[in-house]
Design brief:
disordered C terminus, 25% strand, alpha/beta, 258 residues, 15 strands, 7-stranded parallel beta sheet
């Protein structure tokens, strides 16, 4: 098992029981306690958990909030981000749409089009657009995460490989100058990478709370993404890093684009 996979499992254990013991993790992974100590040190340095004597405890910012919780956070900002993102879409195009609450906010604006092909692992998006006359909707199969209403895993990635899109719209749990675009779930990150690889244009949609944050795994460097659409970017250092990497920063609350 790769280190990143162990870290994800440790976060999942913390999400359910709030505390893990080094000895129990050593037995669980069949690894030495020193290796587990090293894992915990790395995860603490990333802000993913808090190290305590004999193990680690949950760090609330390290655990991905569930979809219904995220949907209630920054609804006005997410609506503005989604509305801006749809401005890039042209009639008749093929779109990849990622799982997540911000990408789902695009739906009301996409319904204004007459003809689109939408390929998605976002079950909510597929359900809401599937009755629109003139739309072709492809829901990617794979492992279902019921709480997220999303599919991911090797089958999802394999299905994606045969499709090509004009644009892909992705969510992210963190954006930082050093770590790039990150998220919590390894399988979903594989889906995002394939979407980026098979799309002519790639956009990340996120609110300001994700800026200067990083989570478990990078799914794209700053230079892999064409545009970041965010409600506001108050940090000048991050702004400079984004522009330096050739990424277009679009602020929905700003009067001008950087």
């Amino acid at each position: 098992m790769l280190q990143a996979e162990r870290h994800q499992k440790i976060l999942e254990l913390l999400a359910s029981q709030q505390v893990v013991k080094t000895s129990e993790l050593s037995d669980y992974f069949n690894l030495s306690r020193q290796t587990i100590h090293n894992d915990i040190d790395v995860m603490e340095s990333k802000g993913l958990l808090q190290k305590v004597h004999g193990g680690a405890v949950s760090n609330k910012v390290a655990i991905e909030p569930e979809a219904h919780q995220r949907k209630q956070q920054f609804p006005r900002e997410k609506d503005a981000i989604a509305r801006q993102a749809v401005q890039f879409v042209k009639e008749g195009e093929t779109l990849f749409i990622d799982m997540g609450t911000t990408t789902a906010a695009m739906v009301p604006y996409l319904l204004a089009f007459n003809q689109l092909t939408i390929i998605t692992n976002n079950v909510q998006v597929a359900m809401e657009v599937q009755e629109k006359a003139g739309f072709t909707v492809i829901l990617l199969g794979g492992n279902l995460r019921a709480k997220e209403m999303s599919t991911s895993g090797p089958d999802t990635v394999q299905a994606l490989k045969k499709y090509y899109a004009d644009r892909c719209f992705l969510g992210a749990s963190g954006v930082s100058a050093k770590q790039g675009f990150t998220d919590y779930h390894l399988d979903e990150n594989q889906v995002r990478r394939q979407m980026i690889a098979n799309a002519r244009h790639s956009y990340v949609l996120c609110d300001h709370s994700k800026l200067n944050q990083h989570t478990l795994e990078q799914f794209a460097s700053l230079s892999d993404i064409e545009s970041l659409i965010v409600d506001a970017c108050p940090d000048e250092d991050l702004r400079a890093a984004l522009v330096d990497q050739g990424l277009e920063l679009i602020e929905t609350e700003a009067k001008t684009r950087v």
